[in-house]
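Chapter review: from sequence to fold.
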Amino acid sequence: MFFIIGSEGFLGKKICSLLPKNKTIKISSKKVKNCIHTKIFKDIKKKSEKWIKKIKQQDTIVLLSNPGSINFHENNPKKVLNFEKFLERNFFLKVNRDSNIIFLSSDMIYSGKKNYYIDNSIDVSLNNYGKSKKRIEEKIRKYFKKHLILRLSKIYSQTTKDKTFYSEIIRNVKRRIKLRLFKNQYVHYLDLRDFLSCFKRILNKSNLIKGTYNLPGKEFTTRYEFGKKICSKNKLDKKFITAIDMNKKKIRLPKKLKMKTNLFMKINYFPKYNI
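The token string follows.
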């Protein structure tokens, strides 16, 4: 069985679409139809929730839930720490630790001060979002032998119905709303189709692939240049895209997040989509 924690988020829904319905248990902190409503991220002091007790050694947990955006993490450090504390107390300490777990981490755990980062690179995170992801990574390694941690780059979808950076650019430019995008922060952009293809192969090899891996996209550029590419492809006016300096933002962000990985060799799939 697959237990998807955070099944109602954007990636959660996409991942659930890859799985057979009769082998998928959806877990959400929201009250949603056909989902188990969980309170593991709250300060509850009771026995394990029933669904946690049902997780067996051969099952796979996919952990997607997080407290919020980068801005939320910066503005609410205590809430973030509580999220981590309750996750450990209400789930990690109560679940079958011989089960498989996949955690979607982030490239934000890196400082961006190195030329590139390989799988398992150790670095000092610059912001609370990265620090939180890193702490959760450490707890997962502590409690689960059969763990897979994926450090994701920025995921976008060229399907405009999906709410990603791609559709946000198109929607705002069509409304003639000016966008201010970083001109000097370089990151990978991973097409959703590539992510899902990778993830499907990972699930098929869930008993074989363990450890920590980067998951970079084919595109490596600035948000400003990426925004201009989106406009060009969709024949939109680039004058609504303005370049700004990332150093003017209050939150500390990595400047260059170049990643390399051995994961693509292991699953025999390499990203092929770009703008």
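Two observations follow directly from the output. The CA atoms of residues 52 and 95 lie 6 Å apart. The chain is about 30% helix and 20% strand.
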